[in-house]
Amino acid sequence: MDSSTFIAHCLSFDEVIELPHFEKTSFRVNKKIFATLNLQKKQATFKLSEIDQSVFCNFDRNSIWPATGAWGKQGWTIFHLTALTDEMLIDALTLSYCNVAPKKLSEKYKC
């Protein structure tokens, strides 16, 4: 997965904006971050539920893992971009978006 494809997928969701977030790029809905992109490390981070985090991490623990500390316990999950297929990316992005977006927006994506 390349960064331009990742960004295009993030921006395809309703009312998403792209803003800097420290050394990363963040993707937000309703002022809340649902994904970040670290170009230097070729990593994306998603806000997942505990169960979804577990499912994705079990897929490939070398390429998908919980963020360290409290962030990981809150569902933030790091994906190495080279491990993401389009299907996996869309699944993770949709779940992450729906975890953060207002109900009226997330209902469209049948989360």
Automatic annotation (TrEMBL):
**Gene3D superfamilies attached here?**
3.90.1150.30
One function term, GO molecular function aspect:
DNA binding
Instruction: Give the matching Pfam families.
Output: YjbR (PF04237)
The keyword DNA-binding appears for this protein: yes
DNA-binding among the record's keywords? Answer: yes
Against InterPro entries, the record matches this protein to:
YjbR-like_sf, YjbR/MT2646/Rv2570-like
Query: What UniProt keywords are attached to this protein's entry?
Result: DNA-binding
- What is the protein name stated in its UniProt record? MmcQ/YjbR family DNA-binding protein
State the organism named in the record: Pedobacter kyonggii
